[in-house]
Design goal:
This protein is an alpha+beta fold. The protein has a domain of 194 residues: Alpha-Beta Complex (Aminoglycoside 3'-phosphotransferase, Chain: A, domain 2). The strands form five sheets. Strands 3-4-5-7-6 form a five-stranded antiparallel β-sheet, with helices on one face. It has a two-stranded parallel sheet with strand order 1-2. Strands 8-9 form a two-stranded antiparallel ribbon. α13 packs across α15. The relative contact order is 0.09.
């Protein structure tokens, strides 16, 4: 209906836009972003809510005095000159009566200014186009069962997590910590992550963050620093990653299942790496509802052919200790500047399987891979096998988020190439 109006009813479209406060049609991405947020962990406490993504068409009329309880006096048909669209939108949000704002401030320590966006997830800040008041986001750390919460004087929400929220906390004595948590997390998610960090540190000697507290709802860890994206840093990271792959396992898998995002990483042990990759890293995801919806029967048939052909596509190799989810974002730095690996999904698997993630997902400078090869040389042709072994990540993304972006196209490219 909208497409027909735009294409064939220009006069009607122009008339509608005159009544539209922002004076333009919305883009599909602007509506999709709101939908994605409602489906994300950031909206886990939101129920039975209609989130208008209509450029203020259905919002309450604009009121000159947002702090007043008086009825609105007028509603301009356009934002005032020079006012950004996001700020115009937030005028409706700002119509909180003064007692309500004071109550929020006293009860939760949340600032509710009149001229800033107040929302409960960082995903919304780019949709509204204005600075984000992070009070509600930061307030959630107070609900986590950490012993340091009463001593926190400053909390900063950190970026990078697609599943859980992460904060940098500063205590009264100046000590910094990183708190990672979610009240609705699976009961063993954070304990498994802590065990994985310990395994990497104790078995391979690589640097991981020290864990001070772990529960079903949180991890409290040492505060680290952003990595310096220099050749020297990535060379050191490549050598450390290679040391990890020198640690041999007896079988493929792990003694317990873990987590990759919010889906279980199945680690049931096998004696054969090709069987393990086929069953635990490909077929495991073919049962997921979003994968079944996004892929055609021909895609599924192609993936089955890849499973059968794995012994001919990937050379036999030993099981080694895998980080399991190493991409650029999961490499940070210690205070001394050494590489630190975070957020593992550990298992015993081929080294090339672990390499595929960091090779195919926003890869670091080639110095990383050259340093890796010097310490632990892979089999000939390993770079050509990276897209095939990265199939696990594509399927995991599809299982979590459905057929958005180019994930399905990437999977079909792998199927065409290797099946």
């Amino acid at each position: 209906m909208v497409a027909d109006m735009v294409e064939n009813q220009a006069e009607a479209t122009a008339g509608s836009l005159k009544e539209q406060p922002m004076g333009r049609l919305g883009a599909a991405e602007e509506v999709a972003g709101a939908v994605l947020w409602l489906c994300s962990p950031g909206a886990s406490f939101v129920t039975a809510t209609a989130l208008p993504a209509d450029a203020l068409c259905a919002a309450p009329p604009y009121c000159d005095n947002p702090g007043s309880n008086d009825p609105p006096s007028r509603r301009p048909s356009r934002p005032p000159a020079g006012l950004r669209p996001g700020a115009w939108r937030t005028m409706a949000f700002a119509r909180w009566p003064q007692p309500a704002r004071v109550g929020l401030q006293q009860s939760f320590g949340v600032t509710v200014p009149n001229d800033r966006t107040m929302c409960n997830a960082p995903h919304l800040s780019h949709l509204l186009g204005s600075p984000m008041e992070t009070g509600f986001v930061n307030a959630r750390w107070k609900s986590l069962p950490s012993a340091v919460v009463p001593s926190v004087v400053e909390a900063e929400s950190l970026s990078g997590g697609a599943v859980n929220e992460v904060w940098r906390l500063t205590l009264t004595d100046g000590t910094p910590y990183v708190l990672k948590g979610a009240l609705d997390a699976p009961a063993d998610l954070f304990p498994r992550e802590a065990e994985g960090l310990e395994a990497l540190r104790e078995r391979a000697g690589v640097r991981t963050p020290q864990v001070f507290e772990v529960s079903a709802h949180h991890l409290l860890m040492e505060a680290l620093r952003p990595r310096p994206d220099t050749d020297e840093f990535w060379e050191a990271a490549g050598r450390a990653f290679a040391e990890l792959h020198k640690v041999r396992g007896e079988r493929f898998g792990w003694d317990s299942d873990g987590w990759l995002g919010l889906l279980r990483q199945e680690n049931g042990p096998t004696e054969d790496g090709h069987e393990f990759f086929a069953e635990r890293r490909i077929r495991r995801y073919l049962r997921e509802p979003k994968v079944r919806v996004a892929l055609e029967p021909s895609d599924l048939a192609g993936l089955e052919r890849i499973c059968e052909r794995l012994p001919h596509l990937v050379p036999k190799a030993p099981s080694v200790l895998n980080h399991g989810d190493l991409w650029r974002g999961n490499v940070v730095a210690s205070v001394a500047g050494e590489p630190v690996f975070i957020d593992p999904a550990v298992c015993w698997m081929w080294a090339e399987s672990d390499l595929s993630m960091i090779y195919c997902c926003d890869p670091p400078p080639d110095r990383f891979f050259r340093a890796y090869e010097e310490v632990s040389p892979p089999a000939d042709g390993w770079r050509e096998r990276m897209p095939l072994l990265h199939l696990r990540e594509h399927l995991s993304v599809l299982a979590h988020f459905g057929g958005n972006g180019d994930t399905v196209a990437q999977i079909r490219h792998v199927v065409r190439t290797y099946s």
